[in-house]
Amino acid sequence: MSSTRITPAVLLLCVGWLLAGNCVAAEKPNIVLLFIDDWAWNGTPIPMRDGMENSRMPILQMPNVERLAREGMKFTNAYASPQCSPSRVCVQTGQSSPRNGFTVFMNDRGQDYFDEKGYPNFPVVPCISDMTIDADAVTIPEALKPLGYVSAHIGKWHMRGDPADESYVLHDGDTSNKPGNTLPAGANQRLPDDLTDPKLMFSVTEKALGFMTEQAQAGQPFYLQISHYAMHEGRECLPATREKYTRHPLVQAYYQKIGKTAETVKRKEDPAIWLGMGDDLDGRIGAVLQRISELGIEDNTYVVLVSDNGYRHKELQLTEGLTQPHHAAKWWVWQGGIRVPMIVRGPGIKAGSDFTGNVVNYDFLPTFVDWAGGDPTALKNIDGVSLASYMKGRPPTEVFLKRNLYFHYPHYRSSMPHSAVVSGDLKVLHFYDRPEIPMLFDLSTDMGEVTNIAARHPDKHQKLYTDMMTYFEKVGARIPKLNPGADLKVYEQDKDYRKRKDWGAFKGSRPLEEDER
């Protein structure tokens, strides 16, 4: 039996090579962000608040999401932006929307501040939004690259510009919602039998798996953002997955209620397709988790699952007795538009744990830098803070728990110009068409934002409102103004007027909607 003698010189060379390459790389954790589109806080099978039945989505089967919750930490109070593009910019830059100026995905019509052209007869002159990520903003891959990371962004970008300019080495370009809608809108109200890549879930995942495999085999730490087109409308799923849900008794009961069958129901009104889309998405999440395990990097990889904005899934009401937990929906800074599901698994995170403090999407950049071994406090002009220590079990400070989170939507679309600040359990909303109505809510007892308590606590309202407007001024946020040329008759004829009236400012208590009772 022969033996090979390792001399001290050879050993020194080996150690030097390891320290310069794979050994250091292996110590750096990988980071995978699974970014899901239009997924409500209660859109997963995981109860976002234990014991609260309508904080989850019954019927929907997502065993891999359930696995992540068992193996990681669930965030019961996670926040995002009210629309997908601003949310994506917040994630990339660590900045709030009022600071980065990207508050909506809309044409600025060549204007710099106010949108004087889009809504000339409406009560408020809204603002335009930045059109791209600011050139001087430090994004996730730019922050991680000096720490030895290579980054990829697969799927929906929707921020304009070239991802390569932000130091992504692999990406799909300047993608919007369009690529993910693989079926022509209105051209076919039925789900085709030959659909094999709904919402590009399978091809997006395969590209992501290839990137992970290549980096892991090279011993290269990586950041991978998989920005799925699901669960955005234009609902799609595999035909076989839809068939599985059409047979569910509650789905069958829904078909009967609307006078349709599984064969005659239209795609947009078919709950089986939405449920199937979630089921297929879960399978792709499972494929990522499986590849991480196969590559032997499970103990050194963080997996973050989160939605880009809130939503209002009608599929909740398939289960009798369940009502919507939140007010409003996407496009609004009510809880229904900004509260999202979030789960994180990774090194040092206790399995099956919960975190109840408020967190927000612009916390990701400093958290990722912290995980990568950098100094998140060295990041300039950001609003987020690192969550890394809290994920490892450090109790949050009172300062953290009561920090102000800012949400700003100075636009019309289906909604209207309004803003909000959340501090602990308190939330102030401000509608620019009704500046005379102060609005304050205690989210600990009023998750649905039914009762405006500003009149009872004027000092609390005034403090948070002043904090918000002072911050907006400090970061240069665009602020709407009342329109002296408003024509209320024209405004009231707009197709979204009723929604704006019902979901606008109010004194006292608001009436519950049909799906909230």
TrEMBL record:
Residues 170-191 are annotated as: Disordered. PROSITE patterns: SULFATASE_2. Residues 29-373 form the Sulfatase N-terminal domain. One of its GO terms (molecular function) is arylsulfatase activity. It is an enzyme of class 3 (hydrolase). Keywords: Calcium, Hydrolase, Metal-binding, Signal. InterPro entries: Alkaline_phosphatase_core_sf (IPR017850), Sulfatase (IPR050738), Sulfatase_CS (IPR024607), Sulfatase_N (IPR000917). Its EC number is 3.1.6.6. Its cofactor is Ca(2+). It comes from the Bacteria. Belongs to the sulfatase family. This is Choline-sulfatase. It comes from Stieleria bergensis. The gene is betC_23.
